[in-house]
Structure formats: structure tokens, C-alpha cells
Amino acid sequence: MAVPVRLWLRAFRRTARSRCKVDCFGRLVGRVQVSGADASLEQLRAGMAWFYRRYEGELPPALRSAYAAAESEARASRVGLWRDAEPVAAVGLAPPLSATPRVRPTPPGGESLSSRRIGITRPLLGLPMDNPFLERAVSGVRALAPYVPGKPVSELQRELGISDIIKLASNENPLGPGPRAREAATRACGDLGRYPDSNGHVLKAALSRRLCIAEECITLGNGSNDVLDFIIRTFAGPGDEVVYSQYAFAVYALSTQAQGATACVAPAQNYGHDLIAMRALVQPHTRLVFIANPNNPTGTLVDAAALEAFIADLPPQVICVLDEAYTEYLRDPSFPDTLRWLARFPNLILVRTFSKIHGLAALRVGYAASSPLIAQLLNRVRQPFNVNTPALVIAAAAVDDDAHVAASALCNVRGLTELRAGVSALGLDYIPTWGNFLTIDLGREAQPVNRALLERGVIIRPLLNYGLPNHVRVTAGLQPENARFLGTLAAVLGQAEVAVANTVRAAG
């Protein structure tokens, strides 16, 4: 069984040297070789099957012979014909093949491409090759790689035995919860022997008053991630299509694949949403369109007028989901309150969270705002008691803590100013952001830089799994955290730490 895998890797190395189009798979093989990550045999077979079908006409004769030898070896090993395998998303491929051709992403400023179904890359974190339960899992799950969150501080402490650690990886609020939430926390754990209110009345009532919408329009989730997942489980399945953008939040792809639906991924425009390309992907089988605004992990923002026109142009049976996890960081009064759009667009769902500007990431509280008819359906799929009692009580207290929200927004402005100044001083590029993070182009492979930062106690987020191998995402922290990150990055990159620190102090 190891022989076909070895030949598969050799074939890809030779393909890379022949300068064939291996933008996704060249990085994939590099990850297999460098990280030693586990990959199921199904993933490897599917990877080779997809690649062979996609690029067979471009391969030199010697390389086609190598594929033939590998396939023959696979047949002898009774692992099946690679060219007949079904492609999977866990290795960074487009969704299962259909009559419609796939195209690969183009970097911003590159040649224009058709926007029909492109894939995103994700790390190889599949099941071990000898897992006896793999074939018993549903097809969508067999193809999945787990979502990889930002590394916890405790994990780095265990790995390297260091204690002086800062984490700027998960877009958390560096100020933490506000005073109202902290006060509510002291009384939130009084009766842990009882199940929570499954309807979440205390939080829905607070949100209803604050947002000026009926409680029947609100669906609560265990973080906005939970809400996004059960939206897809409610409306998409095999034979249905889900549209989202390249470089969009990874959960859209994961949940779509798990449901057996087809992902239609539009090429990004300047690292953000290309609404024209996304609209072109909407077809009779389209059920959902996801737009993250601001987008994670790139921080881009869709123009409000263009967004409103896009939603108005969608067929009424297609549901548009605006993922607004970072919406409270938009301090521009000219940007409209999208909640007012709900009355005009019954096919619109807004998804928000308490994990970001409210500083309640550990509690996992999010919600959807939609028409009551959509909320009724979501609540059929939502698990009972999915938001616990302390989370309900504390989030309800945080809803009206305007002072903390304002302080957090100001802290974010200062933090981003420091990061932009420091990154520019290092001669690095970054993507303009409207979130609470900065996505930085290191101009080189990010993984070695990330590892060096981890060894020095600085946790950030590399973006290889989003198809951005040279980029990292850094949360805007407090001034000492930002200065330490920038100084450590300068040291890792071999530049003057003092000059960067002076630039940060001047910016602050």
C-alpha cells in the first residue's frame, strides 16, 4: 500500500518540475512531505484521480508512464483504480465532478477566469489509512478534514514548555468581556443542575429590544458557527448547490461537503467577494449564497449599495446568508443597518456573534436574524439546549453594554494602526481590513515563519488552508502584544527590531 503513495508523491514532484499547473497539489504534496500529516488512502486515490483527469493532456509522456505504473501498482495492491476514484474536498479539491468544468483560483490582478466551481485548499488531516470505520461514514464525511482552529495557549505550553505566550490568532477581543457581562457572570451559575431554557427567552428578549425585531425572527446558536452549520443542514443536501467566495470562511465548505451538497466557489476579486461572479453561479439548483461581510480571513468589505442590489437580484427561492461576525467593528455611519433589509428580503438571513466585539468567545453564543418563516425551519434543526444557561445570562447582559463596545472598537482602531505601521516598516504588504485583524503577505512561505514565532511564544494564524501560503492573519491586540509580535517578526525575518518598535510607538 505504501508503494502507490510513494509513486503518487514522486509523480507530483516531477510534475512540479515540469511546470505543469499544480498550484493546489504542489502545496498539498509539500504539506504531506513536510508535516507528515495523515492522509487516508481514499484521499490519496481521489487526489490522483482528479489530477490525472484535469491535466492528462498537459503531462509529458514520461510522467503519464509514471501514473500508469502507479495505477498498475494500485491495482495489484487491490486498492482500486485511481482514475476511477471520486474526488474529495478534504485535500483541497473542487467538489465532486459534474458536466460543468472546474477552474482554479486566480490571484488578484491575474488573468480573468470563468467563475464556475473552484476549490480551496485545506490541510491534510484525514483519517488514518487503516481506519476500519471510514467506509461506514457517509460520503460527505469521508471526504472531510476537520476544521483547524487557532492554536490554544495551553497547547503551545504543553508542546514547547514555555509560559510567556501571546495569542493573536483567533480574532478575540483583547479587552475580554465588558463590566456588565462580568457582573452577570457572578450570578449566572446559580443552578447548574437544571437544563437551560431551550428557547433562550432572556437573550432573545434582550436582542429583540436592542435590534427592534420580533423574538420570532431570532434563532440562537452555540456560536455563529453553529448557526451557519444548521442553516446549511436545513436548506442544502445532495443535488443542491451552495455559492460562496474563494477565501471565505472555511465552515461554509465543511458543512456543505458534510451535507453532500455541491459547493460553487467564485474566484475572489482583490481577496474579496466578486458579486458579479457569484451571481453568475446562481443556477436552478442553488439553495444558499454565503457572503461574509467583513470577510474572514481577508478582512475585505462589500460595498453596501452593491450588496443590496445583489440580494434584490437573487431569485426569491435562493436564500442569502450575510455572515456579520465583525459587523460591530464597522464604525462608518454611512454603512446601512442590514437589519432593516429583513422586511424587504424574506430570503435574507443575518448571522452574528458575541465572540468578537463583546468578548465572549469562550461562551459560544451566536444568533441568526431572519423572517419568522425561516426561523421556524431553523429551529426544527437546531439542537435543544444548544446555548447553556451562563451563556444566555451573560450574553443578555452584554447586549446593552454600549460603553464596552465603543471601548473595544477604539482599542481595535489603535491596534490596527500599530500593526499597519509596523508591517509597513518591515516592507511587507497587507490586505486592507474592516475587521479586528490584519492579513499580512510575508512574501515567502508562511509556515516556517509561523513555526519560528511559535517557538518564541507568539501565536498567529497561517492561512495555507485557505490557499494563501504566504499570508498570515494577526488579531489586533493590546499595544504590548502588537509590539511584541512585530518585534519578534522582525527578528525572525532578520530585520531591525528596534526600528520597528519605534515605529509602533510613534503610531500609537
The structural domain count equals: 3
| Helix share bin | 40-55%
CATH superfamily of the largest domain: Type I PLP-dependent aspartate aminotransferase-like (Major domain)
Q: What separation lies between the terminal Cα atoms?
A: 58 Å
- At the first level of CATH, the class of the largest domain is Alpha Beta
Shape: globular
Please count the beta strands (DSSP E, at least 2 residues each): 13
Poorly predicted residue ranges: 16-41, 77-129
Average the pLDDT over all residues and give the rounded result: 80
Question: What is the fold named in CATH at topology level of the largest domain?
Answer: Aspartate Aminotransferase, domain 2
Give the radius of gyration: 23 Å
Write the layout of secondary structure elements.
Blueprint: H1 2-17, H2 23-35, H3 41-55, H4 61-76, H5 139-142, H6 153-160, E1 166-167, H7 179-185, H8 201-211, E2 218-221, H9 224-235, E3 241-245, H10 250-258, E4 262-266, H11 275-281, E5 286-292, H12 304-313, E6 319-323, E7 348-353, E8 366-369, H13 372-381, H14 389-398, H15 402-425, E9 429-431, E10 437-441, H16 446-455, E11 458-459, E12 461-463, E13 468-475, H17 479-493, H18 497-507
Parallel strand pairs: 1-11, 3-4, 3-5, 5-6, 6-7
Antiparallel strand pairs: 2-8, 7-8, 9-10, 10-13, 12-13
Helix pairs in contact: 1-4, 7-14, 8-14, 9-10, 9-13, 15-17, 15-18, 17-18
Task: Describe this entry's structure for a reader.
With 508 residues, this protein is α/β, with parallel strands linked by helices. It folds into 3 domains: 2-110, no CATH class; 153-175 and 403-507, Aspartate Aminotransferase, domain 1; 192-399, Aspartate Aminotransferase, domain 2. Helix content is 41%, strand content 12%. The protein contains 18 helices and 13 strands. The chain has helices at 2-17, 23-35, 41-55, 61-76, 139-142, 153-160, 179-185, 201-211, 224-235, 250-258, 275-281, 304-313, 372-381, 389-398, 402-425, 446-455, 479-493, 497-507, and strands at 166-167, 218-221, 241-245, 262-266, 286-292, 319-323, 348-353, 366-369, 429-431, 437-441, 458-459, 461-463, 468-475. A 7-stranded mixed sheet has the order 2-8-7-6-5-3-4, with helices on both faces. Strands 9-10-13-12 form a 4-stranded antiparallel sheet, with helices on one face. A two-stranded parallel sheet has the order 1-11. Helix 9 runs parallel beside helix 10 and helix 9 packs across helix 13 (372-381). It is globular, with a radius of gyration of 23 Å. The model is unreliable at 16-41 and 77-129 (pLDDT under 50).
